[in-house]
Design goal:
By secondary structure, this protein is mostly beta strands. Helices cover 14% and strands 42% of the residues.
Length: 97
């Protein structure tokens, strides 16, 4: 799976981080200014740095990140345009607005 860099303006969190079916994986679903969905992933064993960094931000917030195409299941279950695994690089620029 190849990654690519994106820059998105996150305007809304679709609720709080929620556990996935396996109960070990956490997800934070966000909406962008272009009405797209982006899902950030983390795990309870310490890989939640991206979710932790995002959930306390004042919205809107500009995020530059390493993104991946969502799987068929992610598209179906979450309607996501981009998926950001826990190991992905993100840069948060909260002072833009």
């Amino acid at each position: 799976m190849n990654s690519f860099d994106i820059e998105v303006l996150i305007t809304e969190f679709n609720g709080k981080p929620q556990f996935d079916e396996d109960s070990l994986t956490l997800r934070l679903v966000c909406k962008t200014s272009k009405n797209q969905k982006i899902v950030f992933w983390g795990s309870v064993d310490g890989g939640m740095r991206n979710i932790d960094a995002l959930k306390n931000q004042k919205l809107p917030v500009l995020v530059e990140c390493e993104a991946y195409e969502p799987t068929a299941r992610q598209k179906k279950d979450f309607g996501t345009n981009y998926t950001i695994p826990e190991h992905a690089r993100i840069t948060i620029n909260p002072e833009i607005f």
